[in-house]
Amino acid sequence: MTDVTLRQNVLDELEFEPSIDAAHIGVTAEGGVITLTGHVATYAEKDAAERAARRVKGVHAIAQEIEVRPYGTHVTADDEIAKRSISTLAWRTTVPRDAVTVRVQNGWVTLEGKVEWQYQKNAAASAIRDLAGVVSISNLIAVTPRPTSSDVKQRIEEAFRRDAELEAQAIQVNVLDGKVTLDGTVKRWSERQAAEHAAWSAAGVKSVEDHLRIG
Description:
It is a single chain. The protein has 215 residues and is α/β, with parallel strands linked by helices. The chain is built from six helices and twelve strands. The two termini are 13 Å apart.
């Protein structure tokens, strides 16, 4: 696939996605690497644009350079964003109560604290993604799993075998002190994401390094 075709496919996907106003988003393509530029009104749109680009066949990496520029002259104050963030997190059952702290500076939200699972860390960021005034999110929440005697490597490999989308024999799993390293080759971006998800889902995982190649 040529860079010109890939760029057009990404543009078409952005136009097709109803949650995005793609009028001010620019796209360049070079060797399977997509660069997104321009501006959108909300952080949720910025995130949706990246996810839309990832869905396109042939995209191997994305450089995200979209700016968030809220419409109008009113800018939500940082203290108001912080209050709304704390309130929203309190209502999110997947985020442990009082486990996450919030700092806001010029609309940039920083999340800190400790949780036991990666999905809880992701849920915290997802909870505030759509709040008015948020221009970016730094998710610095640490994943500190409960002590476990489970064989993390075995659990991940078993998860791979259960997933119909994955060819488990093509992926090598190495685990050291809660750090999981994935090596091998997958056919599609979705397989790579499925492998990462399975790795993060195992109890005891603190970090995942994805060295999987798409080929």
